Sequence to fold (62 residues):
Amino acid sequence: MDKKLLEVIICPRCHGKLDLTKDRSSLICRFDRLKYNIDDGLPVLLIEQAETLTQAQVDEAL
Ligand SMILES: [Zn+2]
Fold:
């Protein structure tokens, strides 16, 4: 995923910064503990399609 794109995209719920997961397959909002998938290089920034994670899952993924 493009690093510049990562700098400008924000969480649609809290408008905070998103972090790319270690495996680069998704973006995570640490504040909401929401995971947004990256589909063909494009992040799916829809709250209704985001997955809610536990704190342990967030720590593991980042
Ligand atoms: Zn958020």
Q: What stands out?
A: The pocket of zinc ion is lined by residues 11, 13-14, 16, 29, 31-32, 34 (CB under 6 Å). Residues 3-61 form a domain with the N-terminal domain of TfIIb fold (CATH 2.20.25.10). The CA atoms of residues 34 and 52 lie 5 Å apart.
